[in-house]
Amino acid sequence: MAHARRKFFDALGNDKEMAEYALSKFQLLYEIEEEVRSKNLNFSQIKGVRQVRAIPILEEMKSWAEKNVVDTLPKSKIGKAFRYFLKMYDRLLIYTEGGSFLIDNNLIENLIRPLAIGRKNYMFVGSESGGYWAATFYSFFPTCKLNEVNPYQWLKHTLENIRSTPEKKISSLLPQNFSE
């Protein structure tokens, strides 16, 4: 959703009226998400809210885009925004099918950004096996962040307890299962 929204944001200089209209609809969708987060609804309730309130907005946007795309130049910024939105429409609806889905992938992108920035630094980790273990290890820190766990405390606890933890219970040492 964030990528589709950005296309319209980038088109503000090309066709301000249409871009602002689309952005106002995206704003409504994000306001719905903010509302369900603030109310601490369960996944079933979130899905219900999205089905009732978000799907009509998205359907209206699709009809509007289909009607207006024919009057735009394909290579213009607004034309690209319309075409991207219509091409991705079915995928944009997916988040409305479950309460556990996020409206966009910004959270995940922000969590993996440090890894992406350092990607070239991680190309040479000694061996293929080293690469596997480095990737596994680096995944722990975003997991800590997602679960609001202090990475230092988790790692210290894990290193202190890994030798005495039976193999069948090793998953108890994962960040999502850690309690301080």
Automatic annotation (TrEMBL):
Residues 139-175 form the Transposase IS66 C-terminal domain. InterPro entries: IS66_C (IPR039552), Transposase-related (IPR052344), Transposase_IS66_central (IPR004291). It comes from the Bacteria. Residues 1-131 form the Transposase IS66 central domain. This is IS66 family transposase. It comes from Persicobacter diffluens.
